[in-house]
Specification:
It contains 15 helices and 21 strands. By secondary structure, the chain is of the alpha/beta class. It has three domains: 122 residues, Rossmann fold, CATH 3.40.50.12160; 250 residues, Alpha-Beta Horseshoe (pyruvate-formate lyase- activating enzyme); 65 residues. The strands form six sheets. It has a six-stranded parallel sheet, sandwiched between helices. Strand 11 and strand 12 form a beta hairpin. The longest helix is centred in the C-terminal third of the chain and has 24 residues. It is globular. The structure holds S-adenosyl-L-homocysteine, iron/sulfur cluster and FE3-S4 cluster (F3S). S-adenosyl-L-homocysteine binds next to strand 15.
Amino acid sequence: MKSFAVYIESFGCQMNKLDTALVASALQDAGFRLAVGVKEADVVLINTCSVRQHAEDRVLSHLGHLKHLKEHRPDLVVGVIGCMAQRLGEKLLEHGAVNIVCGPAQIPQIADLICQALAQNAKQVAVTEKIRQPVQPGDGSLDSFELEHSSRDGQIPGQAFVRVMRGCNYFCTYCVVPYVRGPEACRPPEAVLEQVKRLADEGIKQVTLLGQTVNSYKYRKGEQTYCLADLLDMAPRVAGIEWVRFVTSYPADEFYEEILQVMADSPKVCRYLHMPAQSGSDQILKAMNRHYTAAHYLELIEKARTVVPDIAVAGDFIVGFPGETEDDFQATVDLTRKVRYKNCFVFKYSPRPGTTADKHLADSIPDEVKQRRIVELLAVQEQISGELNQAFLGRQVMVLVEGPSKKAHVNPTGSDDHPQLVSRTSTDHIVVFNGPVSLAGRLTQVRITRTSPLTLFGESS
Ligand code: SAH
Ligand code: SF4
Ligand code: F3S
């Protein structure tokens, strides 16, 4: 039989990229080949994100190209998987380019759907209404899919993601994730550890434990309740694992001290906390249904720095949430200055159909205002990042090397024959230095010789 080639593209978050890795591995196990581009492919899969309109627009524009391409290549099979597939369901099948629509909970069926589409050149759909209901105790299909296939995505040597929980129960009023990913479901600790062991056997050095609110991980087994701190304690004990990370954390007290304590006790737990505040205004936080105040958030950050003094904190903010006044925005700027993040992701509020905010609040802030606020907040953050990075000058740091730098840095260091490599510290700082490509996927020491707000530059030592 001819072996068909599949090209998979990811347009979403780390959870989305993990699904892409699993799907790629499952399809290879089912006899497909992976293509390096659309041109070489018999099947194109697009793994999509619905978190902001912009993310969906990018996919729609891509589908437009594929529709055009299909005029000359009518046999090309196009599948939309991921969160947008879940949100839009059958509607996507009306698009001239699309043959398959498969939501995040249906990915174990993807190979079958592709085979059917290839055989009949037919439209298929696998989005069920069941996703909004709690995962049925007997239905382990996603868990076994996850265990059967490798989540090593091969993009960054030596690194892999491991999902510890699915879905989200928080229902922040702006957010589509609980609707497209369903309610929170934690995987048993032994399943997580089994996967970490397999990845370590495949040569993985760093695992990133993933969950939308990963710090609320909780699994009851008999008398015992496992929390994220237990996973962070156990995962680095697996032979071969050097570093363990976790994202994303919700600002909450439950298990917080335990998590910080394992970080303080184990050099293998990365000193990095991604804990989005979303806003610095209590009024806006309330309207967002975030369960904390700015003062409480600051206390959490201070606690983190007391227990783990060298911790680096990253955050997310949304600007232009409905009703956000200039004072509310200044409260966000204020919080940013007080926290002194390593880096921040800042997004313009994007109304998502079906969410509480979209149903009850008008998108009242004009785009120019959102734009101005984003620029101002990023400028404040850039200054902070620049100052914090300067403290690295002259220091010796341990980094995990990702591979050759894709873009030529304006600040090249060293003058030897080796290419520029990109690497990261345990605190998630990006370090660029010259070194042999064979270092990719390995830990090494670098001495920092120059800094900028986004990047540290160094010399192999
Ligand atoms: N589960 C994670 C992140 C989820 S989505 C968490 O709770 O922290 C990633 C980021 O996208 C969020 O932190 C938020 O800042 C942003 N985001 C989510 N919905 C959005 C919307 N409707 N408009 C703009 N940004 C949004
Ligand atoms: Fe979305 Fe809030 Fe859940 Fe994060 S915690 S995924 S922002 S609903
Ligand atoms: Fe991730 Fe986007 Fe879905 S952020 S969970 S791919 S909506």
